[in-house]
Write a structure and sequence with these properties.
Radius of gyration: 22 Å
Distance between the termini: 36 Å
Shape: globular
Helix content: over 70%
Strand content: under 5%
Oligomer: single chain
Order of helices and strands: HHHHHHHHHHHHHHHH
Structural class: mainly alpha
């Protein structure tokens, strides 16, 4: 059994672990929803708050930046304290900051509230992976990650639809505020449920809390230097080219961070990021694969929504409905994938990526040749195919990535994985949106609007396809290394 101060578990040792899973999955879905449903509300926010393209970009990217900066430090802190405590703190703060977003009278205050909301998400989300990694083992872990992947898929794809419902039912002036108001009762209810359902996973030996302050500073500088130029990229001619100078800080910051972490660990203290994690091939390859995958997936959703709404004049709710097939298909195959991953391993993920890539190709083909009135329906069919593959990617890869990570480092390992996913998403969306809007602004006035936005959409899909191809290459490399290792092990025995 897990005592009040124990972070260790054995198969079947944590009572009510599926109850804990339900709360973790619900909180993850709530957070992921906020990263996708806001996109549909941006046209309404632009009109009501008189927000420019830079302000709209910051409403999205401010959340992502704050979220990403806190993932690793909070994952480290959760491994040293009780994840349940940070879980509840994050949820309460999330509800309060969501209310601030809903009440924001100006674009500037909405940006500030979104940054604070990202801080809250950065506190609670690392605890989700930490709890799941520590209460599930063996075959049950694959099942749990399968269901968790289904939840993430549903949250990602249903977000635009839910956002569209609030925008259209609430009206142009106040509809977008409803997407934030919904978080308040849900967040507070989840906090109460977390106190009831989550086990107390405090470590057996309670020592002095160590957070490696210099490591946190160097880590934050590196993440900021990498993400900021992409977060301020809108594709408009007014983009300030000086933003790219931030990348000059990135390399020295990373070098200094690695040097300090090695020195800190050599002194017998716990570093912010144990670099030994990256020496685990399954963890390293799985993390790289998901970085590429998440660089493409959110970009696909946002440029598809933009094309349907601004290029073809489809309503917000109808544009959101286009992604429902992806959500349902990925949810179903995530559950199936969680059960099959122990049997098939990496080939399951590789096959899923191939299907996703076919779905992206289908979207491009539909936009290029289909009549405008048929595009939403045919795009939904292409996304359905992609969703079937997507479910075989996220949850099986999560299981394979964390399979060799010690459970006590589950929160930290999951946080690093989520961080690189957020960095990948920020970079992928910035490049895709930059190509999208650069095409829109670069076309002549003589071109029909549908043609302009179709070309912009096709250019954005090139970025999505490139990301999926990169993820597929990483998956094939990992598959080859696993087979070589298996042959060497068999020969040695």
């Amino acid at each position: 059994m897990v005592s009040a101060h124990s972070g260790q578990s054995t198969p079947g040792s944590v009572p009510h672990r599926w109850r804990a899973f339900a709360v973790c999955a619900a909180v993850a879905a709530l957070t992921i929803l906020d990263m996708s449903k806001v996109n549909v509300a941006l046209p309404a926010i632009r009109e009501v708050l008189d927000a420019g393209s830079t302000e709209l970009q910051l409403i999205v990217s401010g959340f992502v930046l704050a979220f990403g900066l806190l993932l690793v430090p909070m994952g480290r802190l959760g491994d040293q304290l009780s994840p349940r405590r940070l879980f509840v703190i994050g949820l309460v703060l999330y509800a309060l900051t969501s209310a601030a977003c809903a009440l924001a009278p100006t674009a500037e205050l909405l940006i500030a509230a979104r940054v604070a909301q990202g801080v809250a998400a950065g506190i609670q989300m690392p605890q989700v992976m930490g709890v799941l990694q520590r209460v599930f083992t063996g075959r049950e872990r694959g099942m749990a990650f399968g269901l968790f992947g289904a939840t993430i898929g549903l949250g990602t794809a249903f977000g635009p639809f839910i956002g569209g419902v609030f925008v259209e039912l609430g009206g142009g002036d106040d509809g977008w505020r409803g997407i934030f108001w919904m978080n308040v009762p849900l967040g507070l209810a989840a906090a109460v449920l977390a106190l009831w359902a989550l086990p107390d996973l405090r470590p057996e030996r309670r020592g002095r809390i160590t957070l490696d302050p210099l490591g946190i500073v160097l880590f934050g500088v590196a993440v900021l230097a990498l993400m900021l130029p992409f977060l301020f990229t809108t594709g408009e001619p007014s983009d300030d080219p000086r933003r790219w100078w931030a990348l000059a800080v990135f390399v020295p910051a990373v070098v200094a961070f690695i040097w300090w972490e090695r020195r800190y660990e050599a002194s017998g203290r716990a570093p912010l990021v144990p670099l030994g994690l990256l020496r685990i091939p399954s963890y390293r390859n799985g993390t790289l694969l998901m970085t590429a995958y998440f660089a493409g997936m959110p970009s696909m959703f946002i440029i598809t929504t933009l094309y349907l709404q601004t290029g073809l004049g489809v309503g917000a709710m109808a544009a959101g409905l286009t992604t429902i097939g992806f959500a349902l298909a990925s949810a179903a195959t995530s559950v199936i994938g969680g059960r099959l991953v122990a049997r098939f391993g990496r080939p399951l993920v590789v096959g899923g990526l191939a299907l996703v890539l076919l779905g992206v190709g289908g979207l491009a083909l539909v936009a290029a040749v289909a009549p405008a009135e048929a595009v939403p329906w045919l795009s939904a069919a292409a996304l359905l195919l992609g969703g079937i593959g997507g479910g075989f990617v996220i949850s099986p890869n999560q299981t394979l990535t964390l399979a060799e990570v010690p459970p006590v480092q589950g929160g930290l390992a999951g946080s690093v994985g989520q961080l690189v996913q957020r960095v990948g998403s920020a970079i992928g969306m910035a490049i895709a949106l930059s190509l999208f809007y650069a095409t829109v602004f670069g076309e002549t006035d003589s071109e029909p609007q549908t043609t302009v936005y179709r070309d912009a959409y096709l250019h954005g899909l090139i970025v999505v396809a490139a990301c999926m191809i990169l993820a597929l290459v990483v998956g094939l490399i990992d598959l080859r290394s696993r087979r070589i290792g298996a042959r060497e092990e068999a020969g040695g025995s």
